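Appendix B. Chain record.
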Amino acid sequence: MGTLKPFLAVALLPLAILTLVNCGGDGGGSNTSPTPEPEVVTREHDDRTFTVAEEISFAPLSEELAYPPSPPTDVYYGTYQGLQGEAVYAFEAPQDWDGNGLIMYTHGFRGEGEVLDVSIPPIPWRLAVLSAGYAWAASSYSANFYDARAGLEDTNKLALEITDYLETDWGVSFDAPSQYLISGVSMGGHIAAAAVDSENIDTTMFPVPYAGSAPFCQAEENQFQWLGDYPRAMTEIAGYGDRDYSEFQTLLGDYDESGSVIIQAGEMLAALFEINGNGTPNWANPINENGENLVEIAKNLSGGERPMFDEGFNSYWNDVSLSTGGADGTVAGILAGSIYDNQDTEYRWTTGDITLAEQEFNDSINRVSASDGVNALREDGVRWIPLVAGDFDVPVLTMHTLGDMFVPFVHQQLYQQKARDNGNEDLLVQRAIRATGHCAFSFSEIVTAMTDFLTWVNADIKPAGDEVLDAEVVANENYGCTFTNTSPDAAEARAGLPACSTQEQKPKR
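Structure tokens predicted for this chain:
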């Protein structure tokens, strides 16, 4: 690798002068009204407890990857105190590592179970990082659910204190890292992006001077806007807008035990799509204009016209994207109120000027507002859901599949717009991958992205990326071809997806 460069939930009291009150002619004294105690806001998540898994060991990369060869490494693991309780740490370093740069890995959503497992990055990610001479460390976080706050605070604490834990638990001594980086996927991508955003740097309990971030397929606070907008649009367009939103799952149908695959379509889906003989929805075949319009609404909400959308919509990831429909907007108790708000959402199935039918739809759909102060600044660290505001001053490289129906490509467009609003778009490189599924990257796509990211951070050689805001560019049939792996192995894994043509692509960023 070579040498590396080295909520505020404050009650806004009225600006009133506390008047001194004289008590007759006895010389007086003074009375003041007692300062009211600030309101304590609690949430369901505060009472949850989690348990560390019994087995937290893991093997060095060289024992898991026969080819290509990986450098010899040492692995360490243990527990430490996190924000919500005990957490698991994992650490792997080249055998000649002594503080030559540390990359924190942030894992994605792991459900709502009580057990906290060791977090191990994907093999290609580890290969790229370790081959470049870096060590990596990862936290289980001290809580499951979508607790990105615990994820960020626990990861930052681990970054600053990992060498202490290693010396205490394992008797090994390392120099403090000369450089800190961060990278993650899905919810972990949310955490990695938030970690370098200025507000979170200012409010975290454990500030880490990250020199760059590589968030992949990242979610963010707008994920919960998408997960509310799409099912509400389905409810209205299917003719069930007069039903309480909490009935959504009953109207939608039954899921399998995993809670991610619809095994029996309900009456709402039957009003819009063909139902297969086994009872599952055939997303590729809307049965009427309402069904066709819903497909277009989903497309526009998730990033607009682009390759791979149809294939993603027609996959089980559409089932997954609807699996939280009907939820109350508290993100399963992570918040004390509802974050969802569609007062300003415009639902469209065409482009250009809004049509009369679209206007009537927007006038009729139920509108709700987020709870006041639902995700406010805090005095004890970052927000319950840390914001990704696009306000950063270090290199950031992202990657996202175009057909992701769960955490859609629109997040990349929102991120780019925020970066432009902050004037730091030159520090953001984004790559579109022609695949369906969530975080469905090939081995080489991950290795290439991480290698290019590290080169950018250390040699100041900015890598190429894709334009994400120009609708004409994104709609091109060859969009995403530049960084998508077309090798036989990747092509086999993505069989049935449209191949790139020989047509010249639009210029990339």
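Further analysis of this model is presented in Appendix C.
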